[in-house]
Amino acid sequence: MDRNADAPWSKFDPEAYVDLNYRTPLEVDLLIVRLMRDHFARCYAAGLPPSVRGVDVGAGANLYPALAMLPWCEKIVLLEYALPNIEYLERQLAPGGYDKEWDAFWEVLREHPAYQDTDPRSTFGDVVRVERADLLSLDGQRRWDIGTMFFVADSMSECPEEFRKGVRCFLEALNPGAPFAVAFMKESRGYQVGAHRYPAYRVDEKQVWENLEPFTGELEIHDLRHVVRKGHEGMLLALGRRNSAIAAP
After folding, report:
1. In this predicted structure, what is the pLDDT of residue 216?
2. d(CA 240, CA 177)
């Protein structure tokens, strides 16, 4: 059984990952962006708190979760462990702005009125920063007001205990009432990026519900049956809000 520490994260190829998944937007990602956009807009329909801090845990080479949080946040932290991904994310924060392939995802976001007054490139550079962190080492001492975690807890290890801990560490990093969006590859048997193979935990809708529900005041799970490569059976998108309870380990 491959655990998170066994995977070749130092050799992860973010450009190859973007080529596979985002350079040409996939229908399922555009659907995810719409669902996440509408969820966040509903959560803030009554107005924003004085200061909202967002986090994307395990950001990798994917900007659309952070873009979806832009209109709501004073600051957004992209937490990432793999050094090649950190370098990729820092390039996206350069003065020239992020790469053009992310424009297609913003076009979907700006279909909602809540996003139309935001200049994404300048705002992204102003409010986003990158920080190196290991999901499994988050201790709940820092808390954020809105959060995302896309294809992380299920895509770092074959170990069920590490999957459960990953979900718990993410949710314990959110303040009570915080809106969140979490995505999983359904029944993934691992994946290839460039020359290297990475582990995955085979998760289904029932497991997602069981692991998220104790931490949530509201929760909806979308079973998206889009298959984008060999070795998985679709995607699961969980949208909800953090409750105030302390769940058992």
Report:
1. 93
2. 9
